[in-house]
Structures are given as C-alpha cells and as structure tokens.
Amino acid sequence: MAIATVNPTTGLIEQSFEPHSGEDIERKLTQAAGAASAQRVSAFATRAAWMVRSAEILESEADAVAAILTTEMGKTLKSARAEVLKCAKNMRFYAEHAEAFLADEPLSDPSSVGASLAYARYEPLGIVLAVMPWNYPLWQVIRFAAPALMAGNVGLLKHASNVPQSALYLDTLFTRGGFPTGAFSTLLIESGAVAAVIQDSRVKAVTLTGSEPAGRSVAQTAGHSIKKAVLELGGSDPFIVMPSADIRAAAAMAATSRTGNSGQSCIAAKRFIVHTDVFDDFAGAFVEQMRALRVGDPLLDSTDVGPLATQAGRAELAELVDDALAHGATALIGGSTPDGPGWFYPPTVLTGITGSMRLHQEEAFGPVASLYRVASVDEAIEVANGTRFGLSSAVWSTNEAEQDAFSRQLDAGAVFINGMTVSYPELPFGGIKDSGYGRELAAAGIREFCNLKTIWKA
User: Fold this and answer.
1) Is residue 1 predicted with pLDDT exceeding 70?
2) Are 203 and 156 within 8 A, CB to CB?
C-alpha cells in the first residue's frame, strides 16, 4: 500500500510520501538508542515537565491537528478535536501519576526472605516499537506514548500508511516539548519492513493495535526474538439490554456507541443482545435513533457520521451486510451502499442474524448493528460469549443480581453497566481471546514496558 493521504470524503489523493530508506531507518534507530540512554537517567520531574509542555503544544494546535485527522480518515471535525484534547488529558495524567505508578515496592517483612532490605523496582526497557492503526490516529498512539516516555522508555512509531500526516506530526511533537532527540519518532515504512525493525537488537519490545492477522504476525516475530509484546486487536462487543433497563436511554447510547467514528472502533458495540420482553420496544427506539443521524461531509458541524476511512473497508463492510441479507437477515434501516463520491455507508440495523452468516463471527468495522433476541440472562451470556473476540462489553440492567452475573461471566476485558465502553486514562484497557493480551492505560499500562527488578540486600 502506498503511503498517502487519500481523502475518504472525495476519494482523491491529497499527498503522497516516499517510505524511509534503509539509511533513514538506521539513523532513526541510532537516535533512539542515544535517547534511550538519556531517558533512562532522567528524573520523573524532568520528564513530567517535558510531557506537560508537549500537551500544551498539542492543545495550542488542536484545530489544525483535528483538520489533519478528518482529512486523512474521515472522522467528523468535532470528534477529531475531541480526540486531540483527550490525548492532551492523557499526557497530563501520566505526567502527574507516573512516579507513583512506578514507585519501588518494598517487602513489608524482608527478614522472611533472609534480607535486611528487599523490594521490587520498575525500570524502563528501552526502545519500544508501536505499530498503530488509522481509526484514532492520535489517541491510539498517545495512549502508548505518554506512559512509555514517562517510564523512561523511547518510542518508535510505525503508523498506518493512510495517515502519514498524523504520523509526521507525532514525529516531532515530543522533541518540541523538550524530550531528547529520538525519544519518540516516526518510521515511514510499509508493513513488510516491520519484522526487521522488531528483530533489531536495539528494539526491546513491541505494541500493536490493529487487526487480528497483523497481531498474529507481530506476535510471531516478537516471540521468535523473545521480546515483550502487547496486542490490542479486534472486537465484536456485545451490548445487552434486559427488561429492567431504561429502554430509550439504552437505545440512544446504543446508536452513539455503534456509529461513533463512523462505526470504526474496536470497542464499539456491535452485537445488540436484547431480552424478548423488550426486544420490539428497543428495536423501534434504536432504529429511530439511527435514522436521525446525519451522514455527510465530516467538516460540517451538522454531520454525525462521516465516510469510512478506506474504499476497501467499505467494500468489506458491504460484503458482510450483503452476505447476511442473502442468508435471511432483515435490514430495519440501511443495508446498501450509496451512490456518489466518497466512501460513505449508512447507519444500518440488521435482525434475524444466524450462525450461517459471516456477520455472526466477523467484526463489522462500520456503522452496522446486529440485533439478537434472547429469553434469559443465561442465553444472553451464551450469545455474548459465542465469539472468538473478548475486548469489552456493555450491560443495561437495574437488577443487581443480573449486573453481578454479567460482570462475572462475560468473557471480556471490561464490562460497562448502564453505559457504553470508553477508554479512560484512569482504567486499564485491553482484551482477551483473539482480542489480544496485555493492558494499556492506568498503572497497568505504564508497567507493561518495564523490567520489574527484584533487589535483595543481606
């Protein structure tokens, strides 16, 4: 794939970029190795000042950066600006909390191990390669970069090939904030060049957010080189609605969760599992909410849903919908590709989903919702867990016994009760099963790329 900005609203190429040469890659790695030495001995207070300054720069340029995001992958301008500001918040969060998250952990009774002093210490690993996707061009990167840099690590970014301007903005952001040259930089390389970077002895670990096939490939390479990896992959998150729920509130949140970022989010609700007693009421309210959404130019404030990011992505989504319809599903709204320029796809709600349909097992990366009817808590859990994915989930119920059952029995990295899944700096984020392993954000995220060293003193 060419490294280029292709505007998904028009389908036109805005700008193309030449991949970095072998000499460029070596220069970047050399700079990163030098920065790793400097980062390792820098003080938390120093790194925090650099991080806060980087956040201030990002905030001051929020409008320009948001326009880049919208141009490159089609999210609405208002959501792009919100993404930029969320990144700055995350940077400040780690500037404030990193030192406490990585404080030494003394053994309360060192004599129990025959020592006068014993404790665990968190130390940076060094250079970490981040392989990142296009759907949140800044947030996916910053939620790795902020904790990694505050831990004293160094980041190398291989971004998706269709968001090169976002990648190049990030290439200089942290050095502008005061971090050493090479502490965070971008490699403009294609997917085929990633393995060699992972295998380089100077690179100590890798993190990837992206598709399941990409995750398997990166994990295999990292495993062969015996290097730490964190993977955040796809999701087919359930959104469960029980009779005690506020149906209209649940329907409104369901539409928001399914269509935010034009439905291109791993943690978006995708499978709506509704108790039969409220199925018809929820379906009607949900379709009403989806019908009210305005699809159009993402630069307009009135637009709720912009285009999909790529032509190939829209084609894949349309294939899933067409296959479901061919096998007996019913479209309550949407379900067909519109004519005209750009890679738009309408908000769509399908019912009558069965195991014979690809949509039942594959991730729909766009504004397409699948409705399932169930008769009990146990059946809802069975349907929810009947996928190879396990990223997050949402449950709508005011019954505490039901809430407890779902929170304990859903196979997912998170359960949100009477709300929708959101990634917060304060909470760990990640999945199980084919949705990946490891965690980002909170204390768990900053510790992923640290050496937990035991110190024992007689």
Assistant:
1) no
2) yes
**447 vs 235: CA distance, rounded Å:** 24
Whether residues 170 and 281 fall in one domain: no
Structure tokens at 90: 């995350």
> In this predicted model, what pLDDT tens digit does every residue of 195-244 receive, in sequence order?
999 999 999 999 999 999 999 999 999 999 999 999 999 999 999 999 99
362 phi and psi angles, rounded to 5 deg: -100, 155
Quick one: tokens of 325?
A: 């319809």
Return the bridge partners of 325, or none. Answer: none
Q: Quick check: pTM over 0.85?
A: yes
Model pLDDT for residues 166-178, shown as the tens digit of each residue:
999 999 999 999 9
Encode 46-59: b = buried (16+ Cβ within 10 Å), e = exposed. Answer: ebbebbbbbbebbb
Does residue 136 lie in a domain region?
A: yes
Domain that holds residue 123: 3-233+435-457
Give catalytic residues, as residue numbers. 232, 266
Domain co-membership, 193 together with 330: no
Which of helix, strand or coil describes residue 117? strand
- How many angstroms separate the CA atoms of 135 and 263, rounded? 10
Q: Say which CATH number the domain at 350 has.
A: 3.40.309.10
> How far apart (Å, rounded) are the C-alpha atoms in residues 237 and 412?
8
Residues 315 and 330 reside in one and the same domain: yes
Q: What is the mean pLDDT of residues 78-105?
A: 98
Extract the tokens encoding 421: 């899944």
And the tokens for 147?
A: 């904790």
- How many domains would you assign to the chain? 2
Q: Are residues 160 and 13 in the same domain?
A: yes
What's 440's domain CATH number? 3.40.605.10
pLDDT the model gives residue 2? 84
